Amino acid sequence: MTVYFIGAGPGAPDLLTLRGADLLARCTVCLYAGSLVPQEMLDRCPPGARLVDTARMPLPDIVGELVAAHAAGLDVARLHSGDISLYSAFTEQAGRLDAAGVPYEIVPGVPAFAAAAASLRRELTVPGVGQSLLVTRVSTLSTDMPPGEDLTSLARTGVTLALHLAAHRAQAIADELTPHYGADCPVAVVAFASRPDERVVRCTLADLPRRLAEEGITKTAVIFVGKVLAPAEFEESYLYSARRLRVPGASH
């Protein structure tokens, strides 16, 4: 039997992929990430399915549930918010499943930064303004950043930033980024992207701490920093330009 690690997306139940929904409907065991997964998504599980909220479960207990289901001949849906490739704690679960000989697959989901960009109605790569996106976070009490990945070091690149798990460090973010991006650099914050309680804050880097404090945003938010958020001028993409289309035999 198989454990399916399914990216549940940013929160809206209809942003679950078709593949994820099909698997969820056939797995008789589902482990899900507490308040991050909406009830409407769990309603897709088959009648009588075992539903396990892992919000306050330690890793050995979570893996124990997965291994026990496998031993019983049951497929398992392991629902994580967003996409499995980012901040999902997949690696430590996968390592223990490998050791136990339990097979697993990954089903990708809509990442939070993509849902947040959609809420902003913004493309995060704008020709002539910014063509790179750096997805990162800040150090917390639970996990420090590796050497060379502290915010000050990363800020030296000057590329557009998407900061996860960082809203509670607004002042530190402003202090560390201002020397590299400037106090007037555009910032956008999307909390609870795609959910009914979604909130959007647009401001400058200098105003970020004050605005987040006013809104009471301390978690479940993505913070974007970069000129692509408010490009005054930009080049149009060559891909769809009349210049490219006039070139005989031109292709991608």
Keywords, separated by commas or semicolons:
single chain, 252 residues, alpha/beta, Cobalt-precorrin-4 Transmethylase, domain 1, five-stranded parallel beta sheet, five-stranded mixed beta sheet, Uropor_MeTrfase_CS, S-adenosyl-L-methionine, 4pyrrol_Methylase_sf, methyltransferase
Could you estimate the helical fraction of the residues in percent?
Answer: 25-40%
In CATH, the homologous superfamily of the largest domain goes by the name: Tetrapyrrole methylase, C-terminal domain
| Strand arrangement, major sheet | 3-2-4-1-5
List SSEs in N-to-C order: EHEHEHEHEHEHEHEEHEH
CATH architecture classification name of the largest domain: 2-Layer Sandwich
Walk me through the structure.
- This protein is α/β, with parallel strands linked by helices and 252 residues long.
- The chain folds into two domains: 105 residues, 3-Layer(aba) Sandwich (Cobalt-precorrin-4 Transmethylase, domain 1); 118 residues, 2-Layer Sandwich (Methyltransferase, Cobalt-precorrin-4 Transmethylase, Domain 2), CATH 3.30.950.10.
- 30% of the residues lie in helices and 19% in strands.
- It contains nine helices and ten strands.
- It has a five-stranded parallel β-sheet, sandwiched between helices. A five-stranded mixed β-sheet has the order 6-7-10-8-9, sandwiched between helices.
- β8 and β9 form a beta hairpin.
- α3 crosses α4.
- It starts with a strand and ends in a 7-residue tail after the last helix.
- The relative contact order is 0.14.
- The model has no long low-confidence stretch (mean pLDDT 91).
- It comes from Tsukamurella pseudospumae.
- Pathway: Cofactor biosynthesis; adenosylcobalamin biosynthesis.
- It holds the Pfam family TP_methylase.
- InterPro entries: 4pyrrol_Mease, 4pyrrol_Methylase_sf, 4pyrrole_Mease_sub1, 4pyrrole_Mease_sub2, Cbl_synth_CobM/CibF, Siro_Cobalamin_biosynth, Uropor_MeTrfase_CS.
- One of its GO terms (biological process) is cobalamin biosynthetic process.
